[in-house]
Amino acid sequence: MNLPLLSPLLTLFPSNITPLVLPFPSAPGIPAGKENTKDLPPASFRQIIPALARLRDPLGHWFESHPSPPFAIISDMFLGWTHRFAVDMKVKRVVFSPSGGMALSVIYSLWKNMPKGGDQNGDVLFEDVPNCPKYPWWQLSPVYRSYVEGDPDSELIKDGFWDNMASWGVLVNSFDGLERVYLDHLRGSMDYDDRVWDVGPLVPATGYNDRGGASSIEVDKMLAWLDTCRDNEVVYVSFGTQAILTSQQIEAIAEGLERSGVRFIWPIRDHVTANQMEGDRDRETVMTGFEDRMTGRGIVIRGWAPQVLILRHRAVGTFLTHCGWNSILEGIMASVMLLAWPFGADQFSNATLLVDYLKVSVRVCEGSNTVPNPCDLAQILANSANQDEASRQKIIKLQSNALEALSETGSSSKALSRFVNKLCELKTRPKSHIISHNNLVE
Ligand SMILES: O=c1ccn([C@@H]2O[C@H](COP(=O)(O)OP(=O)(O)O[C@H]3O[C@H](CO)[C@@H](O)[C@H](O)[C@H]3O)[C@@H](O)[C@H]2O)c(=O)[nH]1
User: Fold this and answer.
1) 269 inside domain
2) pLDDT at residue 202 above 80?
3) Structural domains in the chain (count)
4) What is the Cα 189 distance to its own chain's centre?
5) At 272, which CATH number?
């Protein structure tokens, strides 16, 4: 069911890429017909990681029956089992990190040291990560916090992260001019050596507007409305594919937007309604009245928004974001002011990077259960929408670093070339020289 998401890529390279479609393994806790975390609640990560590990056998059959099987595997960090698979197949495995270098450093440190709780303040200090970030226990990755020693799914997830660290190399969706210190840290602290390739930001090319799916709004109408707005006056509000807002949070955002007087676009995910918590007030009543009053001043999208297209419009100048890494990179590429409200996963580390280290963002709220004060929120939104060009300089500088990284001679392009060269070296080397997992020469 995820195959259509690849169509734009497959169309661009029809003869180079052949998808191998394996049936999604059924698994307890994952309803039939749901094959993507964007259609599932955040806790489903605990089920989906073990489910995907069951692809090992079908993949193995394909591998062994292929006349010219691959000599390297690139796989997402939630597919840690592919490291051992690669070892068995006597090929190399490269981790793909959809998270940035700082977040990955924190995640690796977490699984390496496996802290059992915080200090007396409830904080966990990451002493082996540059700048020694610390987080209260509740801000650590929920996948980590749900680890139970001896539980088969927990052990599989833990092994997956250990295997990520033991893999041959890592591709990071990030760039030198954003967080070099963390990319260097990954180079220095793992056995990856120089095989850390920062090839980002990986964002869609101009003109490609359907990232992650078709939009739930008439795009032409939305663009026509945006065209009537002044430069940078529109606030875009979105919390990615995982966060589920409570009715109280939705109400507070609606009130904040209304009080602020700003123009806005705000997608609300469909299945949020289905997941309303018990005791929440009726979201629909709030939203219907709000949408009526906001006609002409803002757009509420029920479902999927063409986020990249929206962010790139000259009228959009502020992004209230949950700090998902893709949203951050898209925001940087569009040089919009980032207002941070991290919910979970790697988002607290991402917020640390943006707010505390790079100082390109303001922390608006924190946590999946916190409800912001609508008056404070309104003030922050209004201030951001009215900022002058001078206050946008830091984010413009980051955008220019990103563009530089992607230029022909930029750091990310060079990293990609180095990566391709390494792969080519593998291809020309007989497999008998490959060192196995046990460091035995095969
Ligand atoms: O209506 C929508 C909603 C989302 N998006 C796109 O969906 C992606 C969302 O990705 P991201 O911003 O990274 O958020 P999540 O969906 O929450 O991503 C998960 O994966 C990221 C990468 O690992 C982590 O950084 C996050 O914490 C984790 O929640 C982005 O490309 C958005 O442009 C849309 O196009 N339209």
Assistant:
1) yes
2) yes
3) 1
4) 23
5) 3.40.50.2000
Q: Is residue 301, in this structure, part of any structural domain at all?
A: yes
Tell me 357's DSSP state. Answer: I
Q: Which residue has the tokens 């005791």?
A: 279
Measure the CA–CA gap between 320 and 362, rounded to whole angstroms. Answer: 10
pLDDT digits (tens, 9 = 90+) for 236-270: 999 999 898 988 999 999 999 999 999 999 999 75
In a domain, 420, yes or no: no
d(CA 225, CA 29): 42
The helix (run of H) or strand (run of E) holding residue 235 is strand 234-238
- In whole angstroms, give the CA distance from residue 289 to residue 282: 12
| 255 neighbors 298 (Cβ within 8 angstroms) | no
Nearest-atom index, ligand 1, CA of 307: 35
pLDDT in tens, 99-131: 999 999 999 999 999 998 766 678 999 999 999
Give mean pLDDT, residues 57-76: 93
Over residues 379-416, the pLDDT tens digits come to 999 999 999 888 899 999 999 999 999 999 999 999 99
Quote the ligand 1 centre to 126 CA distance (angstroms): 25
The residue range of the domain holding 259 is 219-400
21 pLDDT above the threshold of 70: yes
Which ligand 1 atom minimizes the distance to the CA of 98? 23
Q: CA 307 to CA 422: how far, in whole Å?
A: 35
127 Cα to the center of ligand 1, angstroms? 29
As a whole number of angstroms, the distance between CA 302 and CA 291 comes to 11
Ligand 1 centre from 112 Cα, in Å?
26
Task: Give the number of other CB atoms < 10 A from CB of residue 108.
Answer: 24
Check if the beta carbon of residue 373 is closer than 8 Å to that of residue 248. no
Main-chain dihedrals φ then ψ at residue 244, nearest 5 degrees: -115, 115
Three-state DSSP at 167 gives: coil
Could you identify the atom of ligand 1 that is nearest to the CA of residue 242? 17
Integer angstrom CA distances of residue 204 from 19, 175, 181, 308, 346: 20, 16, 26, 8, 22
Residue 375: other Cβ atoms inside 10 A: 12
**Residues above pLDDT 70, as percent of the chain:** 93
Let me know if residue 268 belongs to a domain.
yes
> Per-residue pLDDT for 422 more than 90?
yes
Q: How far is the CA of 412 from the centre of ligand 1 (A)?
A: 21
